[in-house]
Fold:
Amino acid sequence: MTAWAHSLIRISNYEVETLQKRLAEIAERRTLGQMRLAVLDAEVQAERDRARADAQAGMMLQAYMQGWAGRKGAAEADLMVLDAEEEGARDALTTAFEELKKFEHVAEQTRLNALIAANKRETATFDEMGLRKRAS
Structure:
């Protein structure tokens, strides 16, 4: 493999690995966001149960629900942003992987072409040796 092909493949591998790490980070943040939503849902259920048992808590439930709706809306918005970011990261990873495969293919073709050329030179040398031997 030529030095330039090896360098391109190393750079492409690095880019693919970087994008894979980015995608893993996004997935981790998504998991945390989903856990945040689950906690919010559990909290609201606990407050509703408390409001049923306590009249004073029942009077404050409406204000709590308004605040909860805002927090839930923010959490859902964060998840939507993460969805878009994940889609972009997946597209970038796909493109980087395609580029890596192109470089690997070109490097392999270059190697095979060099091998074919070397075999042709060797065959020509043997043919020439055979002709010289026959001529002697």
Remarks:
- The chain has two helices and no strands.
- The mean pLDDT is 91.
- The two ends are 41 Å apart (CA to CA).
